[in-house]
Specification:
CATH class: Alpha Beta
Strand order of the largest sheet: 1-2-3-6-7
Bound molecules: zinc ion
Family: Belongs to the polypeptide deformylase family.
Shape: globular
Largest sheet: 5 strands, antiparallel
Number of helices: 3
CATH architecture: Alpha-Beta Complex
Catalytic activity: N-terminal N-formyl-L-methionyl-[peptide] + H2O = N-terminal L-methionyl-[peptide] + formate
Function: Removes the formyl group from the N-terminal Met of newly synthesized proteins. Requires at least a dipeptide for an efficient rate of reaction. N-terminal L-methionine is a prerequisite for activity but the enzyme has broad specificity at other positions.
Low-confidence stretches: 176-185
CATH topology: Peptide Deformylase
Number of domains: 1
Keywords: Hydrolase, Iron, Metal-binding, Protein biosynthesis
CATH superfamily: Peptide deformylase
GO molecular function: metal ion binding; peptide deformylase activity
């Protein structure tokens, strides 16, 4: 078992599921219980994401089947150009509107170590989700943050970067004029 020496307050790190593991191919299940156990899972996910220098992490990536992810964009070694945002816990997310314009950008994934993919994502999205208290939130996201949301949302549908990069609409990327400067999760 892999062990890490961590400061006392940090919850134990969760092992990250790697591409090919069944959990990453499954549709996540709706969260109904907004309890201490859910908050604890979010805390552990957050610590595991930070330790791995991610800017987002979805529950299936830590072997949980729940429809939950964390977005936490900030510059680090893996994403030096990432914008700063306070971490957001996203439960039972829905994309209620997506802009027709797609933008290309580089993405990596904690479950696909050492690889980067150019992926087309909607430039802007309107989303709904619940917070850890179960309260519904609505937000409009653009650019890098919208990209993280779409990447993590994919995980909850059982889609990793490998499947996404092979989808027909991604072929447009080859003829795309410009690649977005910022990298993504
Ligand atoms: Zn990922």
């Amino acid at each position: 078992m892999f062990k890490h020496l961590m400061p006392k307050q940090t919850p134990p790190l969760l092992p990250i599921a790697l591409v090919g593991e069944a959990i990453l191919g499954q549709t996540a299940i709706t969260v109904h219980h907004f309890d201490a156990e859910l908050a604890h899972l979010a805390e552990q996910m957050s610590a595991s994401m930070e330790a791995a220098k991610g800017v987002g992490i979805a529950a299936p990536q830590v072997h949980s089947p729940l429809a939950l992810f964390i977005m936490a964009s900030r510059p680090n070694e893996r994403y030096p150009d990432a914008p700063n945002m306070a971490p957001v816990v996203v439960v039972n997310p829905q994309i209620i509107h997506a802009s027709s314009d797609l933008v290309g950008g580089e993405e990596g994934c904690l479950s696909v170590p050492g690889q980067r993919f150019n992926i087309l994502r909607h430039q802007a999205i309107e989303v709904r989700y619940q917070n850890l208290q179960g309260e519904w939130q609505q937000a409009e996201l653009t650019g890098f943050i919208a990209r993280i949301f779409q990447h993590e949302f994919d995980h909850l549908q059982g889609i990793t970067l490998l499947e996404r990069s092979r989808m027909p609409e991604q072929a447009q990327l080859i003829s795309a004029q410009s690649i977005e400067q910022g990298e993504a999760q």
